[in-house]
TrEMBL record:
Gene Ontology BP annotations: DNA recombination; DNA repair
Domain-level remarks: Has three domains with a flexible linker between the domains II and III and assumes an 'L' shape. Domain III is highly mobile and contacts RuvB.
Domain Helix-hairpin-helix DNA-binding motif class: 73-92, 108-127
Protein name as it appears in the record: Holliday junction branch migration complex subunit RuvA
Domain I: annotated span: 1-64
Amino acid sequence: MIGRISGQLAYRGLDHVMIDVGGVGYLIYCSDRTIASLPAKGGFASLYTDLMVREDLLQLYGFQTLVEKEWYRLLLSVQGVGAKAALAILGVLGPEGVGRAIALGDAASVKSAPGIGPKIAQRVVNELKDKAPSVMAMAGQDESATASAVLPVTESSDAAVVENEPKPVAPSRAADQADALSALANLGYTPGEAATAVAQAARDEPDAGTSELIRLALKRLAPTG
């Protein structure tokens, strides 16, 4: 399996690029968004890759991040979604947008991708909603260093004061909560909304990991009525 390719960008097409690695050119198919992110011809480019193997085909697909690659693989697991459709969805929404649409049940956003009809869009949302938290947790781990407090705070003129003086959180649990917070922030929730939901989820399930915290927090944040 070819997991990553790094080298000189030799060519940029409409739906693929060529990366020269030691004199060997690798054709890699990418979303519009990924192609746009690459440097000019001759610059250094690095992409995570997924190799599609068929009887008459060996084809590489490229991604900016491991999270984008994971969403691509999950999208392929949905009946009726092929590589072209998965790249179209990622090209329009990006990995964060795909996570947001699936977590919030927003089939209309998925349908906005070229070639994606309403039935396929709804199927994507329905079939991947339970898998979304684990991928969102991957994204959160990349940003955990910048995550804010994991419990609700109130501001004062001197400093932020933690409400109700909670007990210290074990380092591993704190990291899980920070990752969950970061993932929820990527979905567009405010720091206050995310912190409250994650704190409540952590109280309900003290041993929950990142993906479980995200799932429980999303349940609390889901609109009612």
